[in-house]
Specification:
Distance between the termini: 38 Å
Low-confidence stretches: none
Strand order of the largest sheet: 8-9-4-3-10
CATH architecture: Beta Complex
Number of strands: 10
Strand content: 25-35%
Shape: globular
Number of domains: 1
Radius of gyration: 15 Å
Largest sheet: 5 strands, mixed
Number of helices: 2
Order of helices and strands: EEEHEEEEEEEH
Helix content: under 10%
Length: about 140
């Protein structure tokens, strides 16, 4: 079991298994994290649970269907259900143990920070990973 928590410890979670870990270089992830990219663990809902603090998760919504979540006490990023609630995107920095996987890919590499060079050999996707883009992006939204 992999445990994780926000900075203040108000939000605590447990994960049985991480399906994938990925780096996202989109401008929203960069602004949200204040870094070159955000690293997320992708978890199937059946392998994720809040131990406590789900009520501390605050939502920020922006067009066109963007949602960011964070701890309303300390401001740490929080887990978010995505793609029609089929996955949890868990900020990897919240994890306290070894998730058993390592980052597998870069998404939105086409909009990476100009001051950052991707130096590893992981696959790079210009935008969304094919098959995992939200419906609104396929419709030209």
């Amino acid at each position: 079991m992999i445990r994780g928590s926000c900075l203040c410890g108000g939000i605590v979670l447990e994960i049985e298994r991480v399906a994938l870990m990925r780096h996202c270089h989109c401008s929203m992830c960069r602004k949200e994290t204040g870094s070159a990219f955000g690293t997320m663990a992708v978890v199937e809902p059946r392998y994720f649970r809040f131990v406590r603090g789900e009520e501390l998760v605050q939502r920020y919504e922006y067009p066109p269907d963007g949602i960011r979540v964070f701890c309303r006490v300390c401001g740490s990023k929080a887990p978010l259900r995505l793609l029609g609630d089929t996955i949890w995107a868990v900020p990897a920095g919240l994890l306290e143990g070894d998730p058993g996987v390592r980052p597998a890919l870069h998404q939105f590499a086409g909009s990476k920070a100009c001051w950052w060079e991707i130096a590893d050999k992981l696959p790079q996707f210009e935008k969304w990973v094919p098959g995992y883009e939200p419906a609104w992006s396929r419709e030209g939204g």
